[in-house]
Amino acid sequence: MEATFVLYPNMTALDFVGPYEVIASVPVVTARFVAATLDPVRSDNGLVVTPTDTFDSLKSTDVVVVPGSGHWREVLRDSGALVEWLREVHPTTKWTTSVCTGSTLLAEAGLVSKATTHWAAREDLEVRGVEVSTDRVVFDGKVVSGAGVSAGIDMALRLVEAEFGEVVAQAVQVGIEYDPQPPRSYDSIPPEIAAGLKGAFDSRQA
């Protein structure tokens, strides 16, 4: 099975690194990294990753993972080539997935009807005609979305379970020692803290 991780400037590194560590742990999986060109791509916090393929050279794959960005509105404004590639490759995939605000790119491409995303981007997903869920992982046919950043690990584990079974998923989870403690979400914290966080994320999009 081939899993392709999408790279673009200002992506959030953990959005694809987390799912990569989960999915690529399965021996039958081959990982690829696709971008507009073969030039190294810089994440929003400075991690630089080198693609293996371009949108022009890779036209089919089994799994697509689309990361989000801390600057998702800027990314959406400059997403033409990526969105077009997603529309082109989606019919060939067994699973098309997103993490964090990556679901807004799937929505921009018209590929998803129900999804989750980072709490700060729920309105941006909703205005694109998507039913927004606050769940950590959402399956919408063959499209799977994970909420913000670390939820990409949960999404990938659910995907591994769906594709390879519960035993394999459990082995991968224990292998990476993923046991988040304590559970905490945007909707469960005090309103004043939530409002401050929302303001900070909104200010990034100016």
TrEMBL record:
CDD domains: GATase1_PfpI_2
Domain called DJ-1/PfpI: residue spans: 3-161
GO biological process: regulation of DNA-templated transcription
Source taxon at top rank: Bacteria
InterPro entries: Class_I_gatase-like, DJ-1/PfpI, INH-QAR
Protein name per the record: DJ-1/PfpI family protein
Taxonomic placement: Bacteria, Bacillati, Actinomycetota, Actinomycetes, Pseudonocardiales
